[in-house]
């Protein structure tokens, strides 16, 4: 009696290119392969390069008896930066209705992505996580589910999609050690000094520096530092909620933030209604710009932002008082307003605003340097947990961070031969 013949196996090949060792891509791929015990692999070719500046290359053959299992594994490897040898073109299906994607749509990451059409790889415009890819005469572009229109060609499946993982900086830089920086015990002076130099480099490149802030900035007395950074051109876009705007203007009208005197930290008499009176004044004149033009508002974060005419997006929440007329209360419209400026942003600094930080972080490409600052270590790690792996976490209170960042910028400008803020 003859024994049953073994099940036929399926073989797929992948390639890895770039600084695959320094960036951790090679180890990540091997880790995925090790975890998938029903698949075997062979490293058919490996070239580490001769110097640290040379790119590396690896080709691996991966084998499994179950084609569906192997396809799922290949998808995991593709999302980690692997290129599939003999990859075919993308497949598309029409969106069945406005705001509805095909069931098997490709869900994007925030990494640089390419799609293969007619045997040619082309970039996907505006990388953003948790979106789909739309194909039209203009090429390939990410599209959020809420904005898709019936009949648009949407990429389905994974074949013909290639993701490029970020490569490590070739010099030691602050963003090279992102995960290890989430600690209150790191040498902050050196960290903020390097951050200030990165900030100046981004500004010199012509990209915007986005600040995403929460009301704790005003409560802790750090508002003047942020106002100065905006006035002096170190912050060139501002995303926040109703609370930061209201308490900033409350500080100008009443000298308080949430009813507490900013000079002596004692509660003001009837201070608990100051923010409501602030909202009422703004609603009476029709908004922040009108308050400035009428001479009611003469200083502060919102004053400097409107006076510099930088992009300001104020997004509402269900717990807002008022809100002031400038706040966008439709969350989808708010996403669209924030997304409009994303291509201009080279760095994002997010301070003491967990939900806004996550919302904005979800819109940013992995190439955008991102800093998250909070006194709570758990809040600092949230962005990385949600997929924004480019985030540098710093555990600090808002006032100390903005004060020390201002001093670090002054020092960086002096080293560069320029003039610091203020």
**How many beta strands in the DSSP annotation?**
19
CATH superfamily of the largest domain: putative lor/sdh protein like domains
What's the Cα radius of gyration? 25 Å
| Separate helix tally | 13
Output mean pLDDT. 88
User: Percent of residues in helical segments?
Assistant: 25-40%
CATH class type of the largest domain: Alpha Beta
CATH architecture level-2 label of the largest domain: 3-Layer(aba) Sandwich
For this structure, the CATH topology of the largest domain is Rossmann fold
Strand order of the largest sheet: 5-10-8-9-7-6-11
Q: What proportion of the residues form beta strands (DSSP E)?
A: 15-25%
Q: What is the overall silhouette? A: elongated
Q: Classify the secondary structure makeup into a structural class.
A: alpha/beta
Query: What's the number of domains?
Result: 3
Q: Any overview of this molecule?
A:
33% of the residues lie in helices and 24% in strands. With 422 residues, the chain is α/β, with parallel strands linked by helices. The protein folds into 3 domains: 1-86, 2-Layer Sandwich (Alpha-Beta Plaits); 87-165, conserved putative lor/sdh protein from methanococcus maripaludis s2 domain (conserved putative lor/sdh protein from methanococcus maripaludis s2 fold, Beta Barrel), CATH 2.40.420; 174-415, putative lor/sdh protein like domains (Rossmann fold). It has a 7-stranded mixed sheet, with no helix packed on it. Helix 3 crosses helix 13 and helix 5 (223-231) runs parallel beside helix 13 (398-415). The N and C termini lie far apart (91 Å). 40% of the residues are buried.
């Amino acid at each position: 009696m003859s024994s049953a013949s073994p099940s036929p196996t399926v073989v797929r090949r992948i390639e890895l290119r770039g600084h695959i060792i320094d960036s951790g891509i090679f180890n990540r791929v091997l880790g995925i392969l090790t975890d998938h015990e029903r698949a075997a692999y062979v490293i058919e070719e490996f070239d580490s390069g001769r110097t640290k500046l040379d790119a590396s290359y690896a080709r691996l053959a991966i084998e499994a008896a179950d084609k569906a299992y192997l396809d799922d594994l290949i998808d995991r490897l593709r999302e980690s930066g692997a290129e599939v040898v003999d990859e075919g073109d993308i497949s598309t299906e029409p969106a069945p209705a406005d705001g509805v994607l095909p069931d098997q749509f490709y869900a994007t990451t925030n990494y640089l992505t390419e799609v293969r059409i007619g045997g040619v790889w082309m970039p996907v415009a505006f990388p953003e996580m948790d979106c789909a890819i739309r194909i039209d005469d203009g090429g390939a572009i990410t599209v959020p589910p809420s904005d898709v229109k019936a009949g648009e060609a949407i990429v389905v499946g994974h074949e013909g999609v290639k993701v490029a993982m970020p490569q490590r900086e070739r010099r030691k830089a602050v963003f090279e050690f992102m995960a290890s920086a989430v600690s209150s015990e790191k040498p902050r002076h050196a960290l903020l000094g390097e951050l200030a130099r990165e900030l100046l480099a981004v500004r010199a490149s012509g990209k915007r520096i986005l600040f995403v802030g929460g009301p704790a900035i005003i409560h802790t007395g750090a508002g003047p530092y942020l106002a100065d950074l905006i006035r002096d051109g170190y912050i060139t876009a501002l995303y926040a909620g109703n609370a930061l705007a209201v308490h900033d203007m409350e500080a100008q009208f009443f000298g308080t933030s949430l009813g507490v005197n900013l000079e002596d930290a004692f509660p003001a008499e009837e201070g608990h209604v100051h923010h409501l009176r602030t909202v009422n004044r703004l609603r009476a004149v029709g908004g922040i710009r009108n308050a400035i033009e009428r001479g009611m508002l003469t200083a502060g974060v919102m004053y400097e932002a409107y006076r510099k005419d930088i992009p300001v997006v104020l997004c509402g929440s269900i717990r807002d008082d008022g809100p002031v007329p400038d706040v966008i209360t439709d969350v989808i419209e708010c996403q669209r307003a924030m997304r409009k400026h994303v291509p201009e942003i080279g760095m994002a600094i997010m301070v003491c605003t967990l939900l806004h930080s996550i919302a904005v972080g979800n819109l940013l490409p992995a190439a955008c340097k991102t800093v998250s600052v909070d006194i709570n270590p758990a809040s600092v790690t949230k962005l990385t947990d949600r997929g924004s792996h480019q985030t540098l976490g710093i555990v600090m209170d808002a006032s100390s961070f903005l004060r020390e960042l201002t001093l670090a910028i002054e020092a960086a400008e002096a080293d560069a031969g320029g003039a610091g803020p203020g």
